[in-house]
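Re: weekly structure request thread

Next one in the queue (170 aa):
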Amino acid sequence: MLVKIAGVGRMAVASVAPEGFEDNINQHVCVIRTGNKEISETLAAFLNSDIGEKLASRRATGGTRPALDYPALLSIPIIEDKRILEITSKVVEQKKKNEAEADKLLSSIDDYLLNELGIKLPEPPENTLKNRMFVRTLSEIKNKRVDPFFHQDKFINNLTAILNEKYPIK
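Done, posted below.
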């Protein structure tokens, strides 16, 4: 199990490394070896909870860059309860379900508004080298910005679409 012990933000953020995980860690992360994966997952779920974070933050030292030293990390009282994992998995599933519903609702709102305003978005062009290149004549850029970014096709097409719309422009 890996635990963040230094830096700004939530203290003692924990995660369970996958089986066979090999990597380098720095002084901001601590490795905790437990008896098995279930204990690691339960401990990580507790440390990632608001209660675990508050207990860890109270033990942090340092002013502008808080950190947990090993005695402080070991002094955090841990509530060992198998229900923690059940609650965490239920909350994660509910969060995913809520996000999916929100995404569906947001996309339907976009479609509804575009339809009501009579706006039809153009299909994006295929991502090829030819479609990413553009050519402008000197007369087209005369008395305008000289940088090439401003003269990309997407901006020219947007300006043309705005000027040709049925709504007044001020």
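The chain has a mean pLDDT of 87. DSSP finds seven helices and three strands in the chain.
Next request, please.
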